[in-house]
Write a structure and sequence with these properties.
Layout (H helix, E strand, L loop, with lengths): L9 E16 L4 E17 L3 E5 L6 H8 L7 E6 L2 E2 L5 H4 L6 E4 L13 H12 L4 H14 L16 H13 L5 E5 L7 H18 L2 E5 L3 H7 L2 E6 L2 E7 H6 L4 H8 L6 H6 L40 E4 L2 E3 L14 H11 L1
Parallel strand pairs: 3-8, 3-9, 6-7, 7-8
Antiparallel strand pairs: 1-2, 1-4, 4-5, 9-10, 10-12, 11-12
Helix pairs in contact: 3-4, 3-5, 4-5, 5-6
C-alpha cells in the first residue's frame, strides 16, 4: 500500500481526452457527423496503483485505453505518460517510447499470431526494440515464461495448442518483455472461463507487487474490479461520471448511474440479496453519434431534474479524492419531491 503521507508520482495524466470517429455518407463520402466514443475524459494514475475503468458495453472504455496508448490518433486533449506528452506527437517519435507502455488485449486468441511460436511472440518486442543476441533473447524469453507460469518446454508450440488462460499468459509475457512502467489491461479476463479468471487476476497482482507496475484495468465485471483496483472510474456514453477510491465508491456511490450499476451486481448471500433494491434503468443508451443535450444520462436517470436537460454537469471534486459529474452534487438547487418519491430516492441511494 502506498504511503499517504508522500503523494506518489503520477505516471499517467489524461486531460480532456476526446476520440471522435468521423461518419461519412453519400456518393462523395462527405463527413456528415462523428461518433463521440470518448468525449472529454480526465484522470490521473499514480505509480504502482491500479485504476479500474468500468461501464456498460459501448461506453468507450476500450477506446479510451487505446487512445491513451496512442493506438489511435486522438481528436483533442492531452496525454502525459511518465512525464512525456504523447497526445499529438507523430507515430515515428512514439516508437522509442513504446517500451514504457504496453497493453494486454481482451481476446488472447485474436491478439496472438497463429503462425508464430510462443518464443517468437514473446521475443518479437525484444527483436524490435533491443540489440540482444539470440542466446540472450532466448534466456529473456524463458525468464518471462517462468514469470507468468508457463512451462519452458512449450516455447516452440503455437497459440492454438494452449487453453484460453495460457494464451492470456502469453499475452502478459509479451507485454512485460520490455520492462514497461504502465500497462493497459483491456478486459483481460472477459474471454476466459470463470475458473481461470481468478488465476489471471492473481498473476497480474503478483507481477505488480514484484515489478512495481501501474495498471489501467478496463472491465465490466464490477466484482473483479473491486478486488484488484485501488480507485475506480465509471464511464457512461464517452464520459467519466464518477471517480473515487474503491471502498468509497462501492459503499456510497454518488452518481445515479453508479448506483444503478452497483445494484445489479449479484450478491452470493441470499439473505443480503433480498434486501438489495434493484434500480432498473428505463430506455436504451443514446447513440454516441447524437448524445443528448445537457447531461448524457438525463434520458435514463431516475432522479433527473429540468436543469439536466440543458446544462452539462461539471466534473467536480465533492470530497477529497472523490469526483462526480452530477447536478445533484454540484450545488444546484434540487426541487423538493413528494414524500413517496423522496422515499424512493432514499432507497436508490442505499
Amino acid at each position: 500500500m502506498l504511503d499517504a503521507a508522500a503523494p506518489p508520482k503520477k505516471i499517467v495524466e489524461v486531460r480532456d481526452l476526446k476520440m471522435h470517429f468521423p461518419i461519412h455518407a453519400g456518393v462523395f463520402r462527405r463527413r456528415v457527423g462523428e461518433v463521440k466514443a470518448v468525449d472529454g475524459v480526465s484522470f490521473d494514475i499514480h505509480e504502482g496503483e491500479t485504476l479500474g475503468l468500468v461501464g456498460e458495453s459501448g461506453c468507450g472504455k476500450s477506446t479510451c485505453g487505446r487512445a491513451i496508448l496512442r493506438l489511435y490518433d486522438i481528436t483533442e486533449g492531452s496525454v502525459v505518460i511518465d512525464g512525456r506528452e504523447i497526445g499529438h506527437i507523430p507515430q515515428k517519435e512514439l516508437r522509442p517510447l513504446r517500451p514504457r507502455m504496453q497493453m494486454v488485449f481482451q481476446d488472447p486468441q485474436a491478439s496472438l499470431d497463429p503462425r508464430m511460436t510462443v518464443a517468437a511472440i514473446i521475443g518479437e518486442p525484444l527483436v524490435e526494440h533491443t540489440g540482444l543476441s539470440r542466446d540472450a533473447r532466448l534466456e529473456r524469453i524463458y525468464e518471462l515464461m517462468d514469470a507468468v507460469g508457463l512451462n519452458r518446454n512449450f516455447a516452440n508450440r503455437y497459440p492454438h495448442e494452449f487453453s484460453g488462460g495460457q494464451r492470456q499468459r502469453i499475452g502478459i509475457a509479451r507485454a512485460l518483455a520490455l520492462n514497461p512502467k504502465f500497462i493497459v489491461c483491456d478486459e483481460p479476463i472477459a474471454a476466459l472461463d470463470v475458473s481461470i479468471q481468478a488465476q489471471v487476476v492473481n498473476l497480474l497482482e503478483d507481477l505488480q507487487k514484484r515489478l512495481g507496475l501501474t495498471y489501467l484495468f478496463i472491465s465490466h465485471d464490477l466484482s473483479m474490479v473491486r478486488h484488484i483496483a485501488s480507485r475506480v472510474a465509471v464511464m457512461y456514453l464517452g464520459k467519466v461520471v464518477e471517480l473515487a477510491p474503491r471502498d468509497d465508491l462501492y459503499e456510497t456511490p454518488l452518481h445515479p448511474y453508479t448506483q444503478a450499476l452497483l445494484s445489479a451486481v449479484p450478491d452470493p448471500d441470499p439473505a443480503s440479496a433480498e434486501k438489495v433494491k434493484r434500480i432498473i434503468l428505463q430506455g436504451d443508451v443514446p447513440s454516441p453519434a447524437n448524445p443528448p443535450k445537457g447531461c448524457n444520462f438525463c434520458t435514463r436517470c431516475p432522479r433527473v431534474m429540468p436543469v439536466c436537460h440543458h446544462e452539462e454537469p461539471a466534473f467536480t471534486e465533492v470530497a477529497p479524492g472523490r469526483f462526480v459529474a452530477c447536478h445533484l452534487h454540484d450545488g444546484t438547487k434540487i426541487p423538493e419531491a413528494p414524500a413517496a418519491a423522496a422515499a424512493d430516492q432514499q432507497g436508490d441511494a442505499t
